Amino acid sequence: MREGVHAGTACWIVDTAHAQAAIARHGGQLLAWRPADAAHDVLWLSPLAKRPPAPLRGGVPLCWPWFGSGEGDLPAHGLARTRAWALDDWRLDDDGSVALTLRPETQPVPGLEVIEHLRIGGVLEQTLETRNTGDVPLALTQALHSYFHVGDVAQVEVDGLDGHDYLDKYEGYAAARHQRGAWRLDDPRDPGRSDRVYLGTGGRYLLRDPVLARSLAITSVGSHSLVVWNPGATGGRAMDDVGDGWRHYLCLEVANAVTDRVQLAPGTTHRLSQRVEVQESHATG
Ligand SMILES: O=P(O)(O)OC[C@H]1O[C@@H](O)[C@H](O)[C@@H](O)[C@@H]1O
């Protein structure tokens, strides 16, 4: 564990026999993670990413304490991703993983305390822990906004959503739609793009990528919603920090979003977690 620079941004760098990773001070944002035996980076970081104080496009931005548009002048996806974070503590576990605890240098919301726990090894574990330190109940929406690196988003499939309802941002989250089969970008209802919040989800997802010849197994705890976002060609090119990069990522965001709100009574804690494992496809023949 050392301090360094990754993609031009001040980071904590993990480099062990099991994995490499970079976590930005800006937003406490995991920018890169790659198990030692993985052939490709697991996370996508835009080559066109803006610099702090702008949000960084890629890795795992922390959307907190709200997901999506802010009220009035408040920024999209909350306050955590543009704050400076501090490293509280780190340790090397017996299995060779590095465990880190981070928190914003200044907590952005009075009465709420947010802490990020990361465990970096052959498997990634990430938790956003929120405690209501005040004396009134507070509601929270949030997401681990993972940009997963894929070979070609038009060729991947996501399991774990069949039979679930979703709300579509392109429809103002107005009407529930029903998913049949695996998620694909070429879904005939809304082809070539996706901005959906799947509800009542079970927390087990598989992102199958035939081009990179691997699958990513994602499990979540403390979440009953999954955001699936890719802007497609037209939408991507309209975003100056995405451009043609839209083809190389899919956002699968374990979340508490839209109707999946967390109600935090005074003195209580909520944990939103994900675990990500890379399953390389073995060559045949
Ligand atoms: O550009 P931002 O604020 O990082 O948001 C990126 C995307 O984040 C997703 O979570 C939203 O569902 C999309 O609607 C949004 O475009």
Automatic annotation (TrEMBL):
Catalytic residue positions: H145, E253
Lineage of source species? Bacteria, Pseudomonadati, Pseudomonadota, Gammaproteobacteria, Lysobacterales
Presence of keyword DNA repair: no
* Single annotated GO MF: carbohydrate binding
InterPro entries attached to this UniProt entry: Aldose_1/G6P_1-epimerase, G6P_1-epimerase, Gal_mutarotase_sf_dom, GH-type_carb-bd
Q: Which Pfam families match?
A: Aldose_epim
Entry EC number(s): 5.1.3.15
Q: What is this protein called?
A: Putative glucose-6-phosphate 1-epimerase
Superkingdom of source: Bacteria
User: Does Isomerase count among this protein's keywords?
Assistant: yes
Q: In which family does this protein belong, per the annotation?
A: Belongs to the glucose-6-phosphate 1-epimerase family.
